[in-house]
Design brief:
homodimer; Arc Repressor Mutant, subunit A; two-stranded antiparallel sheet; DNA-binding
Chain lengths: 159, 159
Amino acid sequence: MSVRESDLAALSPGEMLRLDHQVCFALHATSRAFDALYRSLLRDLGLTYPQYLVMLTLWESDGPTVKELGTRLRLDSGTLSPLVKRLEAAGLVERRRSRRDERSVSVHLTAKGGELREQAVRIPPRIAEASGLDLDELRTLHGLLSRMTERLDAAVAPA
Amino acid sequence: MSVRESDLAALSPGEMLRLDHQVCFALHATSRAFDALYRSLLRDLGLTYPQYLVMLTLWESDGPTVKELGTRLRLDSGTLSPLVKRLEAAGLVERRRSRRDERSVSVHLTAKGGELREQAVRIPPRIAEASGLDLDELRTLHGLLSRMTERLDAAVAPA
DNA sequence: TCCGGTTTAATTGCGGACAATTCAGTCGCC
DNA sequence: GGCGACTGAATTGTCCGCAATTAAACCGGA
């Protein structure tokens, strides 16, 4: 029933190339479709999707450093520094230089930022509904994506 | 065995939100992991991944208009116009204003652009191998992604 | 104590993605 | 033929993502 990995090598180059591109292309397409849907739902909150991810992280646990945010969201300071500053300019967040280690900057919710959560909790159910997948499928998809990311990371940065 | 969609509504809000975010976040993470791998493999060719997609399209069928490229790759002119100009600056492509309809611009491979194909065909097998999924899993993944994109598109742009 | 290596943010530069606008060219309809 | 609506590219502006660099703070060992 299950096709083993070694069988991939037995495919004709054409078949392998085609399937591979379909999957990778489909991945990008789905990712952008998600972005588009989030954009339309987040417009009222004045957030972009990456900004929303940062807010989610803060709602779960306030006061992480930029470094910790980057680790959790897989983003570097080149992305996070201006993003967090935009959140600060919007009055949702406050940046504080740590006294203990003056290199690090921790990010804290303002009252306004905390209140935004109540608007935000209505969004995920609409996303889940729009995805059109049932629970089993979401679990399957998540499993496949996680394994793939793990393997890809290993391939791009070989130990 | 299979969980029906209606069961999604029976989940506690917390469960649904968490699973949804994991999936959406995983999708972005995988997408970026793919980008990183392609970037490392495409560096020798001097192409980025979106540029590579355009070249793939041209190798399959030369001379599409910018509009047709946008339809196939789901990109708009704001992305494609400068991208194609960069390919032209690199000598891989030539833009021609159509005589029949002077609004449209068709994109054609140069000799150099055609030759690049021989370098490029070595890349997909390495990507497929790096993904670490077997054929069944790739098919499953592709199916899930396609259905999701379809549903998401419908949700963001309701008829 | 000082010195070198490391860590943390921030900045710069470039390419990609999208919204919104502009402009020329096309087509239909009167 | 001429007017109005539409279409295809291009442009502008904003944000995201990453590479590479800079600068400041930290830490450890000679």
